[in-house]
């Protein structure tokens, strides 16, 4: 299918196709065959890789771009995450970047002509002891100073807004920090929307194409070796999340990160009962209700580094216990599915969007447990870095150099529980 033949999604198109039994929809993107050379090759067909390709084409006019994905697009963390979008970080650098990303999310369905089901239902962090209350006050002040929206609520107001919350004294709800613009988006749709829009601008999206090595001459990248042959290029963007250190190793350098499995769960569908995202650091869980009715539950990282992309019983027990502490009425609800993704955690819980030690090889990694919310912003800034060979001002602080200078941005408190 020719990219130019792509149909605009609209109520009119939907009605027309309904009359034709939906036989006229073209594929959302082409199944491209790899060419011998590209101006830019992006490794990783997750949200970050696809968004980067889209912004390279749209913002910088660089359309001779391939996105190489070893399996299917969105099959990594992008399609495995719990879909929370927020910008309630502590440091100015983080809030500036994540809030930019939330703003891009706010216009994304329209921009991509693809419904990403962005639902700004709010994101409520709970405090169950007086230390937690102090932390929430501190975070609320930092967010407001840094230009993000934040509401500090006392326990009575939290319980008024979320009537089902457990009133028991074991984990009393003493306060809440709400970010009204936070919420959720449909994860697959974010990947598919970017893929469709990038394809329409001429980007080749190539699935089942694993990168197995780099061609480096005189310290400059000249191409990649893949399971579908060699591809020449002078610019490669790495956006492979949990496999960043594996690819860095292929290119001959190390990254200051560790990879862990991160698990999530979804319950059987319930009638609408929870209209916000709740995070409770003390119980170690966060949850929201999907549009299909399932409770989407997340918790902290597995306790040991691993590339095993699967769930286990101890973490499931922990998650279930946390949910029941918060909402005893969910005790008889059954989990339908449990899964894991491999996330790459930088030692200060802040990502890297930067050049690498190899000329022409650029890094987008270290999003750890929280890179879904960062997809639009990460793609936008990474495209700038690749096209102009310089950092975007918003991601300049997210450089590798910070591990030499000590200018770390320790966001562990904002990302301790994955979300
Ligand atoms: C359970 C869970 C819950 C999460 N919850 C949230 C949340 O609520 N909110 C939030 O903001 N973030 C969340 N995250 C984190 C978020 O999902 C990730 O940070 C984000 O999706 C990273 O996107 P990405 O495009 O960089 O990586 P991915 O989507 O993982 O894409 C990387 C791609 O690279 C491909 N790849 C790897 N090696 C190769 C190779 N050699 N050749 C070709 N392709 C390769 C992989 O197959 C993969 O598709 C969660 C993560 C998990 C696992």
Salient structural properties:
419 residues, alpha/beta, FAD/NAD(P)-binding domain, D-Amino Acid Oxidase, Chain A, domain 2, 2 domains, eight-stranded mixed beta sheet, six-stranded mixed beta sheet, 19 strands, globular, binds flavin-adenine dinucleotide
Instruction: Estimate what percentage of residues fall within beta strands.
Output: 15-25%
Bound molecules: flavin-adenine dinucleotide
- Enumerate how many helices there are, as a single number: 12
Q: What CATH first level of the largest domain would be assigned?
A: Alpha Beta
Derived structural class: alpha/beta
| The named CATH superfamily of the largest domain | FAD/NAD(P)-binding domain
What's the mean pLDDT score? Answer: 95
CATH architecture of the largest domain: 3-Layer(bba) Sandwich
Q: In the residues, how many domains can be counted? A: 2
Quickly describe the structure.
The protein is of the alpha/beta class and 419 residues long. Helices cover 30% and strands 24% of the residues. It folds into 2 domains: 9-20 and 30-87 and 89-114 and 187-256 and 348-415, FAD/NAD(P)-binding domain, CATH 3.50.50; 123-182 and 259-346, D-Amino Acid Oxidase, subunit A, domain 2 (D-Amino Acid Oxidase, Chain A, domain 2).
Structural overview:
The chain has 419 residues and is an alpha/beta fold. It has two domains: 9-20 and 30-87 and 89-114 and 187-256 and 348-415, FAD/NAD(P)-binding domain; 123-182 and 259-346, D-Amino Acid Oxidase, Chain A, domain 2, CATH 3.30.9.10. The protein has twelve helices and 19 strands. It has helices at residues 11-19, 47-60, 92-106, 108-112, 130-145, 155-161, 187-200, 244-251, 313-326, 375-388, 402-405, 412-415; strands spanning 40-43, 65-68, 84-85, 123-127, 151-154, 175-179, 183-184, 204-206, 211-217, 220-226, 229-232, 236-238, 257-267, 277-280, 285-289, 295-305, 335-346, 352-355, 361-365. Helix 2 (47-60) packs parallel to helix 7, helix 2 crosses helix 10 and helix 3 (92-106) crosses helix 10. The model has no long low-confidence stretch (mean pLDDT 95). Residues 43-49, 68-71, 75-78, 80-84, 210-211, 239-241, 243, 247, 262-264, 298, 341, 343, 367, 369-373, 418-419 line the site of flavin-adenine dinucleotide.
């Amino acid at each position: 299918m020719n990219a130019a033949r792509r149909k605009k999604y609209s109520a009119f198109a939907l009605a027309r196709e309904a009359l034709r039994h939906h036989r006229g929809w073209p594929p959302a993107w082409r199944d491209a065959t790899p060419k011998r050379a590209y101006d830019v090759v992006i490794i990783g067909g997750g949200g970050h890789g696809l968004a980067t390709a889209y912004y390279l084409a749209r913002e910088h006019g660089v359309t001779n771009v391939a996105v190489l994905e070893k399996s299917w697009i969105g099959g990594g963390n992008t399609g495995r995450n719990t879909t929370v979008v927020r910008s309630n970080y502590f440091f100015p650098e983080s809030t500036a970047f994540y809030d930019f990303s939330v703003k891009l999310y706010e216009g994304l369905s329209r921009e991509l002509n693809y419904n990403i089901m962005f639902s700004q239902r709010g994101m409520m962090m709970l405090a169950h002891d007086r230390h937690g209350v102090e932390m929430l006050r501190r975070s609320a002040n930092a967010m407001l100073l840094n230009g993000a929206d934040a509401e500090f609520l006392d326990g009575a107001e939290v319980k008024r807004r979320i009537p089902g919350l457990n009133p028991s004294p074991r984990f009393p709800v003493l306060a809440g920090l709400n970010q009204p613009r936070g919420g959720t988006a449909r994860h697959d749709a974010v990947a598919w929307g970017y893929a469709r829009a990038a394809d329409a601008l001429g980007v080749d999206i190539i699935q089942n194409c694993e990168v197995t090595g780099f061609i480096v001459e005189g310290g400059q990248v000249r191409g990649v070796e893949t399971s579908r042959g060699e591809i020449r290029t002078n610019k490669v963007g790495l956006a492979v999340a949990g496999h960043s250190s594996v690819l860095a190793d292929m290119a001959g350098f190390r990254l200051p990160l560790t990879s862990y499995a991160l698990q999530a769960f979804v319950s059987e569908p319930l009638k609408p009962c929870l209209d916000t995202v709740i995070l409770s650091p003390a119980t170690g869980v966060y949850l929201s209700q999907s549009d299909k009715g399932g409770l989407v539950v997340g918790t902290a990282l597995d306790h040991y580094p691993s590339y095993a992309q699967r769930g286990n019983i101890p973490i499931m027990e922990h998650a279930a216990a946390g949910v029941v502490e918060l909402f005893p009425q969910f005790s008889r609800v059954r989990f339908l599915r449990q899964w894991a993704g491999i996330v790459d955690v930088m030692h200060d819980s802040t990502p890297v969007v930067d050049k690498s030690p190899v000329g022409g090889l650029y890094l987008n990694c270290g999003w750890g447990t929280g890179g879904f919310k960062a997809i639009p912003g990460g793609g936008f800034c990474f495209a700038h870095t690749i096209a102009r060979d310089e950092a975007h001002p918003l991601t300049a602080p997210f450089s590798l150099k910070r591990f030499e200078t000590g200018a770390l941005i320790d966001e562990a408190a904002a990302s301790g529980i994955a979300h």
